[in-house]
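User: Sequence in, structure out. Go.
Assistant: Echoing your sequence, followed by the structure tokens.
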Amino acid sequence: MTDTTILKDIPALPIQEEEYELVYERPSTMVDTAMHYCPGCAHSLVHKLLMEVVEEMGIQEKTIGIAPVGCAVFAYDYMNIDMQEAAHGRACAVATGVKRLMPNHYVFTYQGDGDLAAIGIGETIHAINRGENILIVFMNNAVYGMTSGQMAPTTLPGMWSSTTPDGRDPAFYGEPIRVAELVSQLPGAYYVTRQAVNSSKSVRKTKKALEKALRLQEKKKGTCLVEIIANCPSNWKMTPVQCNEFIDEKMVGTFPLGDIKVPKE
């Protein structure tokens, strides 16, 4: 009797399928493609959070995003919603036109600090002062990310950048602009908060803030701004882990986290 014959006489064991718990699934509101952001960059994470909220609210067909120049410009490659590109700094102006033409849609801008707090500060302030019913997602990583890490309006005192190799000197360059505190004084600002994404706890808070801001558009009371303290490993010259520590040790000292202006019920 051959070995093959012996094997044939042995009854086959039943195949037991293992049950796995699904802990994460790409939201349908994200395009099924690999992101090209630098390793550890916060943009990919915030994209996911924002699109998870859109999916969970069931508003994919009624959401329009505006992305300007800078790293933010790639948002429309990954968000599976209607997107419109704006010129550098002009996202709030474009969003104003879109929202006024389609007032029943959810409209948001997705902007970096070089875009919003520098060339676009005028459009930002006037849109909020008018109380345009939009959400502004403001990514604050304290540098110009796409163009080699130059000093931004949000660069910390003493912080190195490609244009401040000895660190930012407030006596020469001025203090960093605290955008959230600045715009919270405007009458058209309805909800203003500053969050971060450098820990699991902060990520959950950021997602809740984004959802709250989008839901508040239904009340048509004014502008919502969610500032997110983010990292830029490539331009900070740090590992992602070091970036997370830098946010806790340095960034939040200048840009404290939490709600700055909340709606009056």
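User: And one key feature?
Assistant: The chain has one domain: 37-261.
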